[in-house]
Design a protein that fits this description.
With 472 residues, the protein is mainly α. The protein has helices spanning 2-42, 53-92, 98-104, 113-124, 129-137, 154-165, 167-179, 182-190, 195-224, 227-231, 237-246, 251-278, 298-334, 339-372, 375-386, 392-417, 431-441, 443-453, 459-466, and strands at residues 93-94, 294-295.
């Protein structure tokens, strides 16, 4: 087995060494914290490593697993419906405000899910502004006279997360819709298919590979969420990891649940790649003529704008406006916090570096899979996607041990050879945070680039090599 893997890597390196190196670096970066988690989960040196499993199996895991499956299924369904429909709306139709709506549909990703949960609980609370206004309009004095459904429920959590995370599907689907050839859509309409039938029979099947990638990212983001889920009363496996670690002070048990959750992630990623391979389509080798957006005027155009604005309103505008009002009241009361400017600069710097590294490594993984098409390459894509579903706190646990060991080793070497102390050069400089972000979000560029490359026939690569170009 090891000999076959080594042979496949050797062949792949001969075809394009740079891409293999980038893919190998990505795999190592993700595998290190997962390996550390596995060591913690095994509880080496502890005789009570699995003592909590009877309690977990009896009272924690059944409910956590059931609610996790229900939550990721519901959020994935909403994300597919909202993301795909809005992507087709701005790609196939031209209406007033379309250019603004085109990028505004991405804005819900700018607000963390737990912030959205806090905002809507504040707004929809029985004594909050929404229900208070409704009671005033209906002339109802008591809060008991009018009670809207409680947002702290499975249904509320599914709705909120769905309208915050749908841009993952929207972004992928929109890119594929814009790449589709107008001749295919026109041929379907020539054969008598209307625009709705053309969408479901031609455009949607061609975009399913990208939609599958976006949906898998939505599901893994939902699986990783802890703040919104816990706040809204949904006990997922991620929440169980956190409570097992913090409430029960059982780090080993938390790592064991995390490893079980990784199995679920592997199943999701494997199913997504299998589903995408079954529905993969290649574009024409020639440059396709893009479809022409149909002009919507009058009432139809304004209706399209309103329908497209609803997801932005729910996922971004309402939470953002509430936060702006709260921030203005805070500044008026205590002034502007000067430390916020420095925190903003640090955030921009770290996020920019982490995003650039994730995109470069994701490109390496995606192109390695494209050029190799081997089991090792497909496993590389799966491994690079695992970090996206690891909760941030658990990822920090997995990274702390290897990073600390590295710093101790470098310090001892520098002290012996040069008589200097390196200190916490990884944990104290932001490098560790960048590392965690790269591992956490590597699945997004890797999956998105891989879906885009899947639209291009491999014959283009072969033709370029025939003309003397290398794989890089």
């Amino acid at each position: 087995m090891l000999g076959r893997i080594a042979f496949e890597f050797k062949v792949a390196f001969a075809r394009g060494g740079g891409w293999v190196i980038a893919a190998a670096v990505a795999v190592v970066l993700v595998a290190v914290p997962i390996g550390a988690l596995a060591v913690i989960a095994m509880g080496f040196g502890s005789q009570d490593a699995f003592a909590s499993w009877p309690h977990l199996f009896a009272y924690v895991l059944p409910q956590a697993f059931a609610e996790t499956i229900l939550l990721i299924g519901g959020v994935g369904f909403i994300a597919i419906c909202v993301g795909t429909s809005t992507a087709w709306l701005v790609s196939a139709y031209d209406f007033p405000g379309r250019k603004v709506l085109d990028w505004a549909l991405l804005l819900p990703l700018a607000v963390p899910t737990y912030i959205v949960a806090y905002v809507y609980l504040d707004l929809l609370h029985p004594i909050g502004p929404v229900q208070s206004a409704l009671r005033a309009i209906l002339d109802i004095d008591s809060p008991q006279g009018l009670r809207l459904p409680d947002i702290r429920s499975m249904e509320g959590c599914i709705l909120l997360l769905g309208f915050v995370l749908y841009p993952y599907v929207y972004l992928m689907a929109r890119a594929l819709f814009l790449m589709q050839s107008a001749s295919l859509l026109e041929a379907a309409q020539t054969l008598g298919a209307g625009r709705i039938r053309t969408f479901f029979k031609v455009a949607l099947p061609l975009a399913w590979p990208a939609i599958a990638v976006g949906t898998s990212l939505v599901m893994m983001e939902t699986l990783n969420d802890i703040g919104a889920s816990e706040f809204l009363g949904v006990r997922t496996m991620t929440v169980s990891i956190y409570t097992t670690w913090v409430t029960r002070s059982d780090l080993t048990g938390a790592a064991q649940i995390a490893m079980l959750m990784l199995v679920l992630v592997v199943v999701l990623v494997t199913f997504e790649q299998w589903f995408r391979r079954r529905l993969s389509h290649s574009a024409s080798a020639q440059r396709p003529r893009p479809m022409r957006a149909r002009r919507l005027a009058g009432g139809a155009g304004w209706t399209a704008l309103i329908l497209g604005t609803v997801p932005v309103l729910i996922g971004f505008l309402v939470p953002a406006l509430h936060l702006v009002i709260a921030a203005a009241e805070r500044i008026a009361f205590s002034g502007f916090p000067h430390a916020l400017a420095l925190a903003t600069l640090n955030t921009l710097a770290i996020s920019t570096v982490a995003a650039a590294m994730a995109v470069m490594l994701g490109l390496g993984v995606a192109y390695y899979v494209r050029t190799s098409q081997s089991n090792v390459a497909r496993s590389t894509m799966r491994v690079s996607s695992l970090g996206y579903a690891i909760p941030g706190t658990v990822l920090a646990i997995g990274l702390l041990a290897p990073i600390t060991a590295t710093e101790i080793f470098v310090h001892e070497v520098a002290q012996t050879l040069f008589g200097v102390s390196t200190g916490l050069f990884i944990l104290g400089s932001g490098i560790a945070l960048i590392y965690a972000y790269v591992v956490r979000f590597l699945a997004i560029p890797a999956g998105g680039i891989h879906a885009g490359l899947g639209r291009l026939p491999i014959s283009l690569d072969h033709a370029a090599r025939t003309l003397g170009q290398t794989s890089t």
